[in-house]
Amino acid sequence: MKNIEISRPKFEDIEIINQFFVTVLKHTFDRNDIGDLLEALNGEIIDKRKKLNEDFECNGESRFFLIAKDGEKVVGSIEYGPSSDLINSCTDGAVKDVVEIGTGFVHPAYQEKGLGNRLLNELFIELEKRGIEEFCFDSGYKSAQNLWVKKFGKPQYHLKDYWGEDADHMAWHLKVKDFINK
Ligand SMILES: CC(C)(COP(=O)(O)OP(=O)(O)OC[C@H]1O[C@@H](n2cnc3c(N)ncnc32)[C@H](O)[C@@H]1OP(=O)(O)O)[C@@H](O)C(=O)NCCC(=O)NCCS
């Protein structure tokens, strides 16, 4: 894990980054027993691809990714950008002007070894540099919700059965200074 480098995405890596999104999303859907929701899976794959393109188009100004690589292999990602329609509808517009963190992905073979925390912290450092004090994020994956509750506390917004029976959606609105590690 020590040799993993976190940096801005390179345009020539666009295909391997998109392939990485597919790998993580398929694994996450299977793990959450929703691997049969092919339309939703494809929607997520397209959404991540679109966001990565936005970063290249604005040169990291309004959509900003960080990518972790182990040698030539993409093993992690994270980004922030304008808050999405989904989180805005779940929070009654409370985070309309707050940046949203998303695409927090770690390759299945590299999970639970601290890389997710490293990516988050690098992003917090960037937010602080840019004078951004607050962020929001959401999660509908049960497998990640436990982890986020442990790390960030109870969500301010908890929508029970949002995706169906026993499939909740959670959203957090937090301050960078409370979580950054300098
Ligand atoms: C969620 C994800 C990004 C976390 O990355 P990671 O590298 O596995 O996480 P880390 O090893 O850095 O651990 C982060 C924290 O979560 C905790 N954690 C890790 N796995 C956990 C689990 N299965 N259950 C509960 N807590 C867990 C760690 O102890 C750590 O807590 P700490 O900060 O209090 O020490 C990664 O697992 C992943 O890509 N999952 C699939 C995609 C996904 O669901 N992304 C999130 C979308 S909302």
From TrEMBL:
Domain N-acetyltransferase as annotated: residue spans: 22-175
Signal sequence, renumbered to the chain: none
Domain of life: Bacteria
Gene3D superfamilies: 3.40.630.30
Protein name in UniProt: Ribosomal protein S18 acetylase RimI-like enzyme
Pfam family for this entry, one: Acetyltransf_1
